[in-house]
Amino acid sequence: MAMIRLQLKIELEYTVLEPGADFFFCIHAANTPGQTVSHEFLTVSQTQAYWETQYRSQNLGERCLRLEALPGHLLVSYQATVDICHHVTDPALVAEVPVRQLPLDVLHYIYPSRYCQSDRLYNFAVSQFGHLLQGHVRAQAICDWVESHVSYRHNSSVGTTSALDTLIERVGVCRDFAHLMIALCRAVNLPARFVTGTNYGSSPHLSPPDFHAYVEVYLGHRWYLFDPSGTAIPMGMMRLATGRDAADVAFATIFGSVMSEQPRVEVHAIEDRAHGWEHPTHTSMALSTS
Amino acid sequence: MAMIRLQLKIELEYTVLEPGADFFFCIHAANTPGQTVSHEFLTVSQTQAYWETQYRSQNLGERCLRLEALPGHLLVSYQATVDICHHVTDPALVAEVPVRQLPLDVLHYIYPSRYCQSDRLYNFAVSQFGHLLQGHVRAQAICDWVESHVSYRHNSSVGTTSALDTLIERVGVCRDFAHLMIALCRAVNLPARFVTGTNYGSSPHLSPPDFHAYVEVYLGHRWYLFDPSGTAIPMGMMRLATGRDAADVAFATIFGSVMSEQPRVEVHAIEDRAHGWEHPTHTSMALSTS
Amino acid sequence: MAMIRLQLKIELEYTVLEPGADFFFCIHAANTPGQTVSHEFLTVSQTQAYWETQYRSQNLGERCLRLEALPGHLLVSYQATVDICHHVTDPALVAEVPVRQLPLDVLHYIYPSRYCQSDRLYNFAVSQFGHLLQGHVRAQAICDWVESHVSYRHNSSVGTTSALDTLIERVGVCRDFAHLMIALCRAVNLPARFVTGTNYGSSPHLSPPDFHAYVEVYLGHRWYLFDPSGTAIPMGMMRLATGRDAADVAFATIFGSVMSEQPRVEVHAIEDRAHGWEHPTHTSMALSTS
Amino acid sequence: MAMIRLQLKIELEYTVLEPGADFFFCIHAANTPGQTVSHEFLTVSQTQAYWETQYRSQNLGERCLRLEALPGHLLVSYQATVDICHHVTDPALVAEVPVRQLPLDVLHYIYPSRYCQSDRLYNFAVSQFGHLLQGHVRAQAICDWVESHVSYRHNSSVGTTSALDTLIERVGVCRDFAHLMIALCRAVNLPARFVTGTNYGSSPHLSPPDFHAYVEVYLGHRWYLFDPSGTAIPMGMMRLATGRDAADVAFATIFGSVMSEQPRVEVHAIEDRAHGWEHPTHTSMALSTS
Known about the structure:
Four copies of one chain form a homotetramer. With 290 residues, chain A is an alpha+beta fold. The first copy, chain A, is 16% helix and 39% strand.
């Protein structure tokens, strides 16, 4: 077990150009047994805007903020203290779950999705990863393959870029690394899902705090964390929401005529040995929060 | 209201070549207030095979049959009597639901999926359908456009064919018509889902009873039926399962080394005016069963 | 016959970062019976660079400038006076050439190419344009369809964008309009080629002088000009080179580590009635220079 | 030097369903200094059909048979004796030609084409093959990579399948292997072209005589032979025509309503030591016929 306390602050700023803009935000920290949220504040600058927070998935503790904004400036600000309790295991002890034993609500994470077209990758994935020892180590091998065969480059992809594009062009951002890893996992029948969350900012220059996209793979009846882009310290990643791929879990989906500023994300890890809160560090152990 | 009684029989035949074949079948009629199932029988020829039926969605009355088969011959046979009660409305009275009023579990049916890449079709869909009167008539216009711009040809597509391929190549089977209609609906913010079901066999030669793929669009807080391939009489279509696209709702998903025979589907419509059971006929009215 | 005299100036500026940069430029005006070049000057700022001009096609009067540059600043400047003599015909009198009568060196312009995948557009092209009256009017109908169904937007496409992408996304720049028109022409067996040239700048704000991409279609044993983007006055377009698509005729192909400035293009039309030089104007007549 | 004598017979059989069918055949053996043709016979069963043979490229000795057929049965039969004189070199001695020294008519074989989208493969090709020793060995490494990473399966591809599809799906026929090898070569600036020819039938069961697709790469100012599908003995391959990819060099291009039989190809290698004619054998030497 590894316990991490994160202080999170997200600020999203927009200029609404016409009446009738609808926003669906996914900026609340997921609230689960493995990741508990306290001292949560949400402020919306438009006092007359209508908004409400709903569960998009009660099981997964995932929330959605719906907001109908008026023309003009809009600032949405979210702060929270989040305690993450990592289940830590020796990866060699984490087995794959045979397809026949997969719960039905997990089963659909082996199907192809918009940006993770696993249905076209069977031959490749089987020839590359099919012979490997099954278990967490195989998912890790896929993660490592993606990290070492794709280059990270800012602005190298667009919203419609998919795992196939990334496999061909070998360049992308964290979202693209995640999509390719997910597609390859599914192609060998490993349920894999896309996580949108935050990266706590392991190094100020290379990876400041930011929204982050990473992967969870279902192994040993848990969802284990993987960061195929290699840009984060997984122990410090915080989950906002999960889905089949980026189509499901944009941090903001906007309907209407709106100009967006660059989002501002701050994350601080609170180290306090007295309370058991560690500093996030790289580890070779398998991590899961659900 | 229109009431239809259907007698359904599905026979699936396989030769399992190696131990350890897993099947996930989606051949049970959905059991909902609008489509009630009675006198259901399932038989599996392998007496030693393990199988069980689970709800894949309790809300939608959709079931999944999991089966672990032994090597050798396998016959799975399902029979049911299904009563469908169509909600029948004047399409001119069925309005669209503004995005802001969509329930969260409906909202994700406007997102792109594996075979319905609506994210690349915004410009086209808006220029073609954006100016139309909103409501059921707009969904119908999309349905009609797809039917009249795509040609039906047996075996003209493969499992990986997507809505974009169909838009380019203008040829397909019912699955492809459905994917293209769904993608175009989502591109104008109409929630649309893929239905796998049966076509009761309106004409013995042109459209014998068979599995069928069609579309439901969320309008006026109901899901309305559309058949963009134009090969069925919608009133006689019966629902097995729904999903974002064909990736979610194959009638059979098979893991293992298996040879498949052509599935056999029989559907009869029981006309009995005394009980109120009509014969399925083409109608210009809007139909919904959920 | 319409005669146009253009004064052309092209300036390309680079910073070569490492030794060993090779450039292939396509910036010489094509020199043909229909487009004659006089008073041509080429200057290369690096006095020690090796360069030579070769014919890339003697038949088509197309030239290629090869240049091996040294590290540092590089300015390539080309000036020419170009007299274009348009063959002007009533489009109603220009027939298509049956495939069997196409010269072999024209025949390959009905085959698909990198960015003009006509092989996937047969059904669409035939259903949309197959029934039209054959001849220049059909090519014009394709040109008009592309212009009216695609939106011009700066920076909306990248180097790998193809006709299929443009057909799906309905947005592009002149290159994309040209690719889509070419693909559709070939799909109905009309030989079509890509032209890279200049747009003389019909209006200072909307279309300043610039490199331009347009289309020639083989009709009545000539190549006729079309501007599917609708951004130029065809009578003022000047040809640098032709090819199957943009893969063949980039104005600059660069091997090595080089930073590029925005190219500067100046084109002036010299009106001089005494010499017979007209001002380029829009016309409903069919134009050809070869 | 290795000399091979081949006896070639090609029979193509069609049923022309409507008047006005045009055929462009590419079934004449190329006639070059390295591959000389003697005793050539062409017979066309329709005595009233118009046909003629033209050079599609005089330089390359490539011919095209144009034929206008009448409705009914059509048999086109071609026989020839072909002497192939292979230039045989130690591959370690064959260097690459720097881009700056490429002849202009070779240069365009580094550009992307319909089925060889090298423009999307730079990162992959450079990371996989960029660091290798330059020369014939690098082209051979690309050839070997394609052969070992793609599986040969009959009917696994269609006419629109491209190198990108093959890279993703890892399965194909000889045409697909050739396209992928070509695309990867071009991505590292190696000029590569597609050859349509015959495979002399090294083993009666695995590879009977048939049309074959293979690759030539420009190295050391010659075009060297490669067979990425690994299904032929390169010394026994005979060239019909070359092009950028399969779009250029189909053995038959048909305009009109026609039913085709399976083509029949017979090739015999004449071994006659007295004349210097060897039996084609596998060799580790580099082979070129042009």
